[in-house]
Amino acid sequence: MDVPGLCAICGRPARPAATCMLCGSLVCPRDFLPEKGICKRCAGGGRRVPAMS
Ligand SMILES: [Zn+2]
Ligand SMILES: [Zn+2]
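Above: the input record for the complex with zinc ion. Below: its predicted structure, written as tokens.
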């Protein structure tokens, strides 16, 4: 459930918004890893996601 303008992870307003390169979710800066360009969820925060290998 992706609500435009809201972080896909924590649900708070994503300002400034960041977009995960893996899942394409809009996330807030707190849930985004700028050094990898992905969100915390894709980075392996508890849940495994098939990553590029
Ligand atoms: Zn967030
Ligand atoms: Zn992601």
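Notes for the reader.
Residues 25 and 39 are 8 Å apart (CA to CA).
The pocket of zinc ion (ligand 2) is lined by residues 20, 22-23, 25, 38-39, 41-42 (CB under 6 Å).
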